[in-house]
């Protein structure tokens, strides 16, 4: 059982979104659309007036330990390629529902390269900012700025 919170992107979305009874209902509906096999017993509920997502615990969770392949470029490339394919499949599986972009619109977006350089530039600049923030944090930590 996990409390459902609004999307962090919600303040920035200008396109009309479907109306959901709760954030948990939104998460369940989207998971069911996008995942080939959603978790067992996936549902939503209200608890003390707050929306919660309920799903069966998974004894094994698929994950990648990138430390094991950090020096194997081809393996990292394959993992990223596989993740991209899974994400694209999920987007196509859920396309055209409740105002979502259709498969044709998603294809046109993918073929338009006007946005790609903007996103790449943003990512590079933001990575530099995060590195600078981390460097400042480490320096402050070493000075004892966070001790009681």
What report would you give on this structure?
With 148 residues, the protein is mainly α. It has three domains: 53 residues, no CATH class; 47 residues, no CATH class; 36 residues. The chain contains five helices and three strands, in the order βαββαααα. The chain has a three-stranded antiparallel sheet with strand order 1-3-2. Strand 2 and strand 3 form a beta hairpin. The protein starts with a strand and ends in a 6-residue tail after the last helix.
What do the pLDDT scores average to? 90
Low-confidence stretches: none
Number of strands: 3
Gross morphology: extended
Number of helical segments with 4 or more residues:
5
Largest sheet: 3 strands, antiparallel
Sheet with most strands: strand arrangement: 1-3-2
What is the CA-CA span between the terminal residues? 34 Å
Share of residues in strands:
5-15%
Helix fraction, binned, reads 40-55%
Radius of gyration: 20 Å
Order of helices and strands: EHEEHHHH
Oligomer: single chain
- Compute the number of structural domains: 3
List keywords for this structure.
single chain; 148 residues; 49% helix; 8% strand
Summarize the structure.
This protein has three domains: about 55 residues, no CATH class; about 45 residues, no CATH class; about 35 residues. Helices cover about 50% and strands about 10% of the residues.
């Amino acid at each position: 059982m996990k409390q459902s919170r609004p999307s962090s992107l919600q303040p920035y979305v200008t396109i009309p979104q479907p109306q959901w009874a709760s954030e948990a209902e939104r998460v369940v509906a989207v998971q069911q659309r996008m995942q080939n096999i959603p978790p067992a017993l996936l549902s939503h509920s209200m608890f003390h007036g707050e929306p919660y997502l309920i799903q069966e615990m998974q004894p094994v969770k698929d994950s990648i330990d990138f430390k094991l392949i950090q020096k194997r470029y081809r393996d990292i490339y394959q993992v990223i390629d596989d993740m991209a394919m899974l994400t694209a499949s999920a987007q196509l599986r859920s396309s055209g529902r409740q105002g979502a972009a259709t498969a044709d619109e998603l294809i046109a977006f993918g073929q338009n390269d006007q946005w790609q350089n903007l996103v790449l530039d943003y990512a590079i600049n933001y990575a530099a900012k995060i590195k600078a923030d981390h460097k400042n944090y480490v320096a402050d930590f070493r000075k004892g700025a966070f001790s009681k």
